[in-house]
Records
---
Amino acid sequence: MNVPHVTVRHLPPGPWRSPLRGPWLTSVFGLVLLVGIPLVFVTGLLSYAAYNPDLAPINDKTPGKGLFGFYLFSWPTDPYWLYRLTQGVHVTLGIVLVPVLLAKLWSVVPRLYTLPPVRSVAQALERLSLLLLVGGALFEFVTGLLNVQLDYVFPGSFYPLHFYGAWVFFFAVVAHVAQRLPRVVRALRSREFRAELRTNTAGTRPEAPDDTGLVSSRPAEPTMSRRGALGMVGLGSLALLVVTAGQSIGGSLRRTALLAPHGRNPGSGPNGFPINKTAALLHVRPQDLGENWRLVVNGNSRRVTLSLADVRRLPQHRSALPIACVEGWSTEDQHWEGVRLRDLARLVGFHGDPPGVFVESVQLSGPFRAVALRDNQVRDPRSLLALRVNGAVLSRDHGFPARVIVPGAPGVMNTKWVRQLSFGATTFGPRS
């Protein structure tokens, strides 16, 4: 029986005639992403673990994750800068990789237009994995950038969208690497990297045609060398590093953080450090923070109500801790003063190792109005119900009259405008 011959066509003339395109350049960009993307993925998973989502439903912004939560563990309080580091790396590296990702997509555009689109079952599966790879990459990077710069702009919660999108993208990366790694190795060995860096535009030649469909059959004259292309992408990544990293590193570099979502100049004075959400934005009413404010502390069988004056009369302690946000920015160590959480647990009958605590704010709207903290977080002597920072009373936007500060916890877990603390796991409520 005669089997019909299928002719495979690619699409150069037109826009796909760059003599730079080919397996070597594509493999160089892919190698950078192969190092960077797993690091972004792992630090993203660590960010999710820092919320202690398996502790209580109030912390779990991605319910029903099932096996995808296999790695979750009790988030530690030491080192106290852990979340500042992991989330700073996650956001900064994700932004820095954007030019590399765009360059990689540019380099493989001809493959997306191979005709016919499906030639066999194996090729259909390959194109499906490519679709998930490209779509997953664009979804994760775009949603991540929008969340950092514009806050919550998605239909539904950002957390499950980004979480499940990350797993789809990662599986697509693994499948793609498994398929393409031998070709990548061959392509990287086909040209010497240092030789390409010494080759100018006049000396740039197209790669030899192969079955990848990346090399044009009618290449145009070069207007840039591969050295120039790599340099342009590298310079773009370096520029993004310069205007982003300062929001996590702090110090004098904070002034260079042009992409910091909450500005580089949060004000002066003791309360002059970045704020994620203001009291006005979260509809915190002045009357809830005035003379009638009371702190309610619950135990298993005891309840204590304290005025601000009562809280101030309790033993005061100091901690030097940063605020680190999921958006990637963080502060230097701020000097907090207040009552230890474990001392408040002792007030309601927990004289040994205290249990976890359910923390509630007076805020009327917005996420994280309440959070659950683990017992190791309560036990840490640096964990405070803070009344003062850097020698001054907390400002209204920083949580006056009292806020929680816990070493190593994401900023949103350091609840502001606290009105109630309930110690003991039974106060966390049933999982919904």
Note: The CA atoms of residues 49 and 73 lie 7 Å apart.
---
Amino acid sequence: MRSPAGRPLDRQVLALAVPALGALVAEPLFVLVDSAVVGRLGVGPLAGLALAGTVLTTVVGLCVFLAYTTTASVARCLGAGDRPRALRLGVDGMWLGLTLGTVLAVTLWVTAPWLVATLDAPAQAAPHAVTYLRWSAPGLPGMLLVLAATGVLRGMLDTRTPLVVAAAGAVLNAVLSVVLVHGVGMGVAGSGLGTAVAQTLMAVALLAVVAPGARRAGVSVLPRALGVLGGMRSGAPLLVRTVSLRAAILLAAWVAAGLGTVTLAGHQVVVAVWGLTAFTLDALAIAAQALVGRSLGANDPVTTRAVLRRTLQWGTGTGVVLGVTLAALAVPLPVLFTDDAAVRHATTLTLLVVALTLPMAGWVFVLDGVLIGAGDGPYLAWVGMLTLAAYVPAALAVRAWATDGTGGLVWSWVAFAGVFMAARALTTGLRARGDRWMTTGAA
């Protein structure tokens, strides 16, 4: 299959997806490294990290629209031949990220004890959760600036620069985590501080790439109030969509917390592994976002359909490969995170459940990327709430009837990776069958 420019579509997808994969895999490595390092401090600190990590990733995840909105808008403008406008929108998105990050950092530091209490944290986990949140909060401005800058580069079909920066950040975070947690003796606080420092330096590196490019195109890097407000307005539907996703993740953590320390500790390990596989699949979604945005901006619906078909094939096939791999690693993986036999057993069986659902997850992630690249945010917003409504009864049933340990952890992930993801597969699949999402032009 070839694009109108004569370049095989598979090569275009892989040229974007492979570097994006490296960058996305580097991000969950932050969580994996922190989990492995903190896990050696005991079950209590690991369980506390589970709650704190969920809160932090929820806060950052709610702002992922910064990356998605800039990717789609920059790609569309470039497809229409308007590079200065593309960079102007990108700079506005970066200022929005920095502003939101600062506000959220202060808010998170102040409300950390209340958030942990609301999640019904076990007594031995709560203080560790609060500590991690407060030490990692200063990194939020950098985290959100990274999201926006990454979106700008993806929209310009550059996924290699974010890869280099993310990989360097992951290595730095690993070193800082080990040194601060065990070497300096800061414990959980050291893990949070290491993440904050690494994310801030990543933001500085990406800013050093985007700002000179904007100046060369005659675009000012100073903030514009109207531009920032416009970014908030255009990102609102994707924010609602992301709220539904993060609410589901937060609900899963709440269910695990209510079932006991073993289930909660095991949940942290499964979440870390799930994040790694999910972001791997999302690399293909990123390629779809950029290519769909570019082709629709160039008024080329034929190529858009070709991208849809091919990336769905890649997504489902990759899900199969990941599922088989995870099933083979279900026994040795938990050993890396904990010495507790009960947590290991529960985690192993749950990872097998997750492995079975990964082909469906591949389908879901790619369709999500296609519709985001097409600017179909309003549809994704309302069906996001619909799929959340389908998941809530299943999650509440697990919380009410399951018990601490293997049964609780397994059934919790049957609800999340099974029921919730199936609802998302149905709603996005039905939308993609029609043409209403294929709006062409730069707008």
Note: The two ends are 28 Å apart (CA to CA).
